[in-house]
Amino acid sequence: MDSQIRNFCIIAHIDHGKSTLADRFLELTKTVSERDMKSQLLDSMDLERERGITIKLTPVRMKYDDYILNLIDTPGHVDFNYEVSRSLAAVEGAILLVDATQGVQAQTIGNLYLALDQNLTIIPVINKIDMPIANVEKTKAEIIHLLGCKEEEILLASGRTGQGVKEILKQVISRIPPPTDNTNKPVRALIFDSLFNEYKGVVASVRVVDGELKKGDKIYLMSTHAIAEVLEIGYYTPKFTPADKISNGEIGYIATGLKEVRDCRVGDTITTLNIEKKPVTSDQLPGYKEVKPMVYAGIFPREGDNYQALRDAIDKLKLSDSSLIYEPEHSDALGFGFRCGFLGMLHLDIFQERLKREHNLEIIITVPSVSYEVTKTNGEKIRIKNPQALPITSQIASVEEPWMTLDIITPKDYVGGVMGLISERKGRYQTTEYLSTGSDQRALLHYEIPLASLITDFYDKLKTVTSGYASMNYEFINYEPTEIVKLDILVAEEPVEALSTIVWRDQAYAVGKKIVESLKESLPKQQFVLKIQATIGGKVIASEHLSALRKDVLAKMSGGDYTRKMKLLQKQKKGKSRMLHHGKVEIPTEAYLAVLKR
Predict the structure, then answer these.
(1) Residue 39 contacts by C-beta under 8 Å, 6 or more apart in sequence?
(2) Residue 360 clears pLDDT 70, i.e. is over it
(3) How far apart are CA 274 and CA 272, in angstroms?
(4) Alpha-carbon dihedral of residues 472, 473, 476, 481, nearest 10 degrees?
(5) Peptide bond between residue 238 and the one before it cis (omega within 30 degrees of 0)
(6) Which residues pair with 270 in a beta bridge?
(7) CA-based, 20 to 30 A from 174: which of 86, 257, 371, 553?
(8) What are phi and psi of 263, to 5 degrees?
(9) CA–CA separation, 265 vs 260, rounded Å?
(10) What tens digit of pLDDT does each residue of 102-132 get?
């Protein structure tokens, strides 16, 4: 049976046609009926369909020529590469998909390195060959340069028309090795994903590495020491399809009935209990390296009494998004909330959108920042994840910030613009490689850059200077010394804690000016003149004024002389002056988001 199983995933840069190719696989193997078929079938979230990106890995079991093919569709964006690394640990092979119109991109290379680290069999496939602007020969040359493979090993296909799809499945069967036969070993299964179901409790996606799991088995989760019973077991087709068991080498799901989402951790090992209620083995499978969040932001409920609802919602999102890190946080201005760690700005954007759509929660997001390592003058070392935790200047001996390796692929005509952008952002040039030859040659630029330079608008600016052609991939390397200050924002002379941010000392004025200008544009007018200020340690470094709403107090006068008019105007002036000192300003979510986007 094991020799008939092939486990594989599709890895590619974002928008290179992974989900479309997966649709063709499902059609060809008749896994999904024609009536139920729709485009991007494995992208189950509305958000994925709207944005045309894959956010969640999705497993599916197909049958073809007496073989069982387990496919995992993976995301392409760098913010979701943790999903990719988990998929790769559950399979023996990967289809490396490259768009013939765009060629090799930065995340193609990033995901390829992840696959090579796991010693997977790589099948290179060039997609979208039916497009009029497809450049197959150039793309082949780039793949050969990258993989060192032979030209005849590269397959050509079109996910849109179905051309070459049958050949890909045949090559998956012939090139990717079957799972090792460990049927007689004590049961071990790797959890590579999980979700919460109201009726089945926590449902774990598993790859059975040794032995077999059956319905009714008592199971033990090695990391959390949780004990549960297999209430239902089966495969993804891609809906839940119950079975009696899943055996060695197979991929499927287990409904555990666990109500606590923390009991079922991605990367944990499942085994069974013997008659004496002890685990049959204590050898854990190698899980996944602990994910390191790159961007931190405070998440607070707009209404204070929604704190518990927010906690439950984040717990459930954490189950299907194991790269999310969070801990409780209290703010004097915003009340109780959470300090959440994300892999990037897209990850944060998707997270807040899911909270709104799936859990109907209105939230306030504080300005994102990276984590800094601070050494105090007394020798104590602390990690700072939010501006409020930064000690006063006299207590700081040194500060270190995270640096990343940055790989950018761009047509050679735009290399100058890219270099200019990165030098503005404190990047350090390393090397340049050329992926292809000819007039449309493309360069792969290697840089080192502070993470703080990447987390705001860097990607948008990169797309602007390269007319949309560049792609990027980044990875953490280490912490390096830096000079930072805490920038506070005051609206109507009241500090707005959610807008406090940590900035480089030499860029404090520029950032403060941008924030106050952004607030001037996005805040609604009040009955009084609104002061918007950026300060460092009580010193104002940038300021704007939002003019007052003017109510026509003379409109109700049917007549009368000049003195009566002046009396009313003076009364209005005194009222505005009083409000200037006592007026409170409600800052709308749009204003926070406008600052975040800046």
Answers:
(1) 19, 20, 23
(2) yes
(3) 7
(4) -10
(5) yes
(6) 189, 221
(7) 86
(8) -75, -20
(9) 11
(10) 888 877 787 788 888 888 899 999 998 888 8
pTM for the model stands at 0.70
- Can you say whether the dihedral through the CA atoms of 483, 330, 307, 589 is positive or negative? negative
CA atoms within 13 A on the CB side of 375: 10
All domains in the chain, ordered by first residue: 2-175 (3.40.50.300), 188-272 (2.40.30.10), 297-365 (3.30.70.870), 395-482 (3.30.70.240), 486-597 (3.30.70.2570)
Of these ranges, 12-16, 242-246, 460-464, 571-575, the one predicted with the greatest mean pLDDT is 242-246
Sort 540 into a burial class: Cβ within 10 Å, 0-12 / 13-18 / 19+: middle
Alpha-carbon distance 419 to 529, whole Å?
Answer: 43
Cα 494 to Cα 490, 497, 499, 521, 592: the distances in Å are: 5, 9, 12, 19, 16
Residues 139, 133: contact at Cβ < 8 Å? no
Beta strands in 211-343 (DSSP E): 213-214, 218-221, 226-229, 232-236, 240-243, 245-246, 251-255, 269-272, 295-301, 325-331, 335-342
Taking the C-alpha atoms of residue 508 and residue 541, their distance in angstroms, rounded to an integer, is 8
Q: Which residue has the tokens 């003195």?
A: 563
b/e 236-273 (16+ beta carbons within 10 angstroms → b): bebeeeebebbbbbbbbbbbbbbeebebbbbbbbbbbb
Q: Which residue has the tokens 């995901």?
A: 111
What does the pLDDT average to over 224-237?
A: 87
State residue 358's pLDDT score: 82
For residue 308, pLDDT beyond 80: yes
Q: How far is CA 36 from the centre of its chain?
A: 29
Which has more confidence, 435 or 189? 189
Name the band, by pLDDT with cuts 50, 70 and 90, for residue 171.
Answer: very high
